[in-house]
Here is the input.
Amino acid sequence: MSTHTNDYVPHAPGYVDNEGPKVVTSRFPYEDSFTMERSLATGGYEGLKAALAKSPAEVAQEVKDAVVLGRGGAGFPAGIKWGFMPNIWPRYLVVNGDESEPGTYKDRLLMERDPHQLIEGCMIACYALGLNQCFLYVRGEMPLAHERIATALNDAYAAGYVGKNVMDTDVSIDIVLHWGAGAYIVGEETALIESLEGNRGQPRLKPPYFPAAKGLYYQPTIVNNVETLANLPWLMVNGAEAYKQMGSEASPGTRMLAVSGHVKRPGVYEVEQGVVSFRELFYDDNFCGGIRDDNELKMFIPGGGSAPWFFEDQLDVPMEGRTVGAAGSMLGSGALVVMDETTDAVKACLRVVRFFARESCGKCTPCREGTSWEEKVLQRILDGHGRPEDIDLLLEIGSNISPGTYPVAAFGDEGLEAVPFPPKQTTICPLGPSSVAPITSAIRRFRDEFEAKIDASSDDAAEPVGAAAGGH
Here is the structure.
């Protein structure tokens, strides 16, 4: 029994079954896609069986040959990341399911709609890495994902796909489901590890730079994203060459993209990497079908709230990590937020900045103080109390969080067009610089909107009280 309704996830936009190859969403159209029965009926755990028939080194090499890029934000090849682990035991796999980047909800759907695929991917990765302990860290505000993963884990243990002597082999692997407490910062891998250890979720000082060398309990640890691991079952069944037939040469395979905002058909799409452009995604009938009410596009965020904004000029950029990076932003977590011509750029800027100000863990002074200052100045402008120097003040605060990003002595258009990406930072993790991205994006393109609000504030302040009240 199957259905193609989009009403899959309560209280969240759902999956859109567009045309094109499917690697990780093939079971989504089934109402019972999250069950063991549906998984086994559609090839579930065949990838694990194929992996166990090979040596761990052969499985790891297959992942490396396929160039499976990380889907959590950085886009680093998983096979190369695995190669950083020294020959030290015990070692661990940590699955980052703490999806909380503004605009992102594709991992949530993966965990809710196909938890067995994720479990199978975890088992394949554990086998390839030669370890027997995996921690699956899931965001606290995803109770349905927790419920379905817990049920799927129980069923997988009972069926012999997880636990001792997996599928009658001498391989034994345990998976622990861990419930997060709802902090955005633990999406940063070292903060996630700190949280797993029972500590406050704050990023670790660096060095050490890679958890692969010193991670959970200061043992070698690989941290992988949910979608990254969900690719492995298909890869083990079909092989690296078939995987590389999809997508571009530099970015093989498919990618899940969560599109929200002012489009006619928001939702999660699985598309070929590096093949589809932003214009096709937003306007093609196979995807979003155009901007709502046939309005004009004003701006869009290509990779989650921490990504610098794009505009109509970048619509024809293909959705590939390196090309988007060269254009001045990132694909990041695969979240696209579309804003049409009715959007107030200053309000949109504040909305994103406020999130980062509230989610700052407080460990780094530039982030703890700077993000709250940015929020206060933006709020002041919107409240009608803006000052002419506030625009440059916002940019100067940003320079202290992300040095060299803005020429403090010259805030003209020429200087702002030269914004480097990725940004430098005076903080341990990128949260602080993430708050700067919407500010420089909005001021760079819509400085006139900031100035208009400030001019209106000045006019109101200069008007006599009696005249404003209609008195004599």
Observations:
- The domain at 345-460 is CATH 1.20.1440.230 (de novo design (two linked rop proteins)).
- Residues 295 and 345 are 16 Å apart (CA to CA).
